[in-house]
Amino acid sequence: MTFFSVSEGVGYVELCANVSFPEITCPIEFPFEVGLSTADGTAVETMDYGAIDVILMFDICETRKCVNVTITEDLVDEPLEFFTYTLTRTPSLDPRIELNPTDGRVEIIDNDVNITVGYNPISYVASEGQGSVELTIVIFDPPVGGAPRPFTLVINTQDGTAIAGAPDNDYNAVIGEIVQFNVGETFQTHRIIINDDMMCENDPNEFFFSNIALDSGVQPIFVIQPQATVTINDDAEPECLPIEVGYEFSVYTTTEGIGVVTLCAVVTNFPGGSPRPFTINATTEDGSAVSGDDYVGVVDVPLMFQVGDDRVCHNVVIIDDDDCETPFEDFFSNLEYGSGDMPIIITRDRTRVIINDTAEPECEPITVGYNPATYYDN
User: Fold this and answer.
1) Which of 5, 73, 166, 240 has minimal CB crowding within 10 Å?
2) What is the predicted pLDDT for the residue at 338?
3) Pairwise CA distance, residues 209 & 194, whole Å
4) What angle do CA 302, 318, 279 make, to 5 degrees?
5) Topology of 2-109 in CATH?
6) CATH T-level topology, domain 243-360
7) pTM surpassing 0.85?
8) d(CA 102, CA 118)
9) How far apart are alpha carbons 28 and 21 in whole angstroms?
């Protein structure tokens, strides 16, 4: 048996019948015929090769005759395969003509190299102000010489906490972008635009995804790391830093007859005032002083800071009630977040207001007693 190997991409293989005439002196005065046929081994006719069953016509004294057998380029990743062929004697063949050898085996070496691609690395970090981020797609364990055949991938982005488009416009969405790999290449890159949106982000580290999928190319091609994560670090614009605000004093003191007490909330960490507008709300709470009797309580009074404001105040009416009371009473005022871009930190969210009672004549102490303290009865 004769053995030989061919590459799947060779196109065809030449099979030959060899004859000899050890007992005959050439020239022979007549032509003759030899049969040649193929049979499946692990290779399958049509799928892997073109089967034949032919009669080869030899001329006078001719000792070799060949025929081509098609080898199929099947584009399937597979192990080594083979088929066999056999030479057969026709009934009219002179017995003195020998066939050598009478059979053979053809091995087909697969040429379909797996291509495995994906993002590497799969995590990227970009600053909001850098303009764009570059992502890398690689062929893992590339064949010597790079990609053995061209192929294309398609790119699509996907929102996470970062949003493409209005209203956030954190990055520019990518839809259906094509990345081309040519023969010999081992990696490709693509860019995604990052927008400096000048917004105060609630999350300083937002993220989105980029996904790849096969677009076209001769198989087998496998995408094993199809998704990359891009984290956007928000630029620390001054207008986005935390604002610290709270009551100016922890205790305010007033007198019952003054009429109002003014309570002020101040921004403590920006000397030039607030970098952005926001609102906090003030609500009073009874202590020993009672709303409606001693003061006029308030609920959710908005203290609206504009850009540049370092303090905003509100008044609480103090009632001059003419009652005879303890020398002082108190109530409280509390602050809570209302509206505006975060973060807002309320550093002193509660203050105490002490009301000193007016000394009305009718409320002055009356001193009474015997005078003189001693009496004599004569």
Assistant:
1) 166
2) 94
3) 13
4) 10
5) Immunoglobulin-like (2.60.40)
6) Immunoglobulin-like (2.60.40)
7) no
8) 51
9) 9
